Amino acid sequence: MAFITLDQQKLKDNYHYLDKLFREEGIQWAVVSKLLCGNRLYLQEVISLGIHQLCDSRVSNLRAIKKMSPEIETIYIKPPPMRSIPEIVRYADISFNTGLSTIQALSAEAEKQGKVHQVIIMVEMGELREGVMRDDLIEFYEKVFRLPHINVVGIGTNLSCLYGVLPNHDKLIQLSLYKQLIEAKFNRKIPYVSGGSSVSIPLIFEKILPKGINHFRVGETLFLGTDVYHDTVINGMHNDVLRLYAEIIELIEKPTVPMGEIGTNVEGHSFSFDAESSGKTACRAILDIGLLDVESNHLFPADPQIKFAGSSSDMIVIDLGGNEKNYKTGDLVEFKMDYMGALRIMNSRYIGKQVR
């Protein structure tokens, strides 16, 4: 079975790097755990870091977190589905919201459960994912403030996840100004301006993050060490906390060009081949992992000589050329992953999960 490993020490190193960075800026931050897909082994490693807030977009994962560590403050980080309202009130201390009817339903359910539910209202700042339109914001807050079992604890925004709209000083200063405007108009304190995510971290390095931004939600940079803004690795962080290992289940020297009439493969793709490759051969290895688990464009072999030859539902074929490193059937091939690769792998129940 192919398996993924989490390096305990490298995770700790990345966590302490970020924690020091945020503490020096007076910023509170929450770990986004959705990459872990509710895996209890890995969640326990994150909880053991001493975190105070965990964010997730699946209520089942928040339920698992609360069972493991009831004292951790949990945040549901997408607009709540109406059918999930009872569970969200039960397992999420805070939820991100954009719809008045949804917040009204949260208030009614919180009353039933004898709670006050906390909300962060998300503002549309150009990414066109979730967010209240800015022209409607004052009226929206006014109506939410009237709800008896709702406590508004923040204003926030999401950037870069859908269309790649990057955060900048102007967008985030606008978010801070909206917070000040709402506080002044309604004489209410709003603790969090949650405008930060992994993609916003470089603004701290460049000293252009507005002082009003006091809350970050970080997942990718913690687990992958990425500077999402510039698509690089942050100096001083590890980009291999997570590693994938797949076993070679066949290794045979074969032609590099298929034989026969070419149609489409399992994904519906058709292929053409260079006539100069006809008659050539290479050592081709089959790995025990496939499209059901991950797409090869999200994987990066530790051995730079390995090339991807193709994928099917349960197998990936790699080209080893002349096999100078003498790979054998049964050997493990190691890969790094990008965020989407790690997310897909973690979501696959066919991939083993280990801690190093």
TrEMBL record:
<dbReference type="GO" id="GO:0005829">
    <property type="term" value="C:cytosol"/>
</dbReference>
<protein>
    <submittedName>
        <fullName>Ornithine racemase</fullName>
        <ecNumber>5.1.1.12</ecNumber>
    </submittedName>
</protein>
<dbReference type="GO" id="GO:0050157">
    <property type="term" value="F:ornithine racemase activity"/>
</dbReference>
<dbReference type="GO" id="GO:0030170">
    <property type="term" value="F:pyridoxal phosphate binding"/>
</dbReference>
<dbReference type="InterPro" id="IPR001608">
    <property type="entry name" value="Ala_racemase_N"/>
</dbReference>
<dbReference type="Pfam" id="PF01168">
    <property type="entry name" value="Ala_racemase_N"/>
</dbReference>
<keyword id="KW-0413">Isomerase</keyword>
<dbReference type="GO" id="GO:0008784">
    <property type="term" value="F:alanine racemase activity"/>
</dbReference>
<feature type="domain" description="Alanine racemase N-terminal">
    <location>
        <begin position="7"/>
        <end position="225"/>
    </location>
</feature>
<dbReference type="InterPro" id="IPR000821">
    <property type="entry name" value="Ala_racemase"/>
</dbReference>
<dbReference type="InterPro" id="IPR029066">
    <property type="entry name" value="PLP-binding_barrel"/>
</dbReference>
<keyword id="KW-0663">Pyridoxal phosphate</keyword>
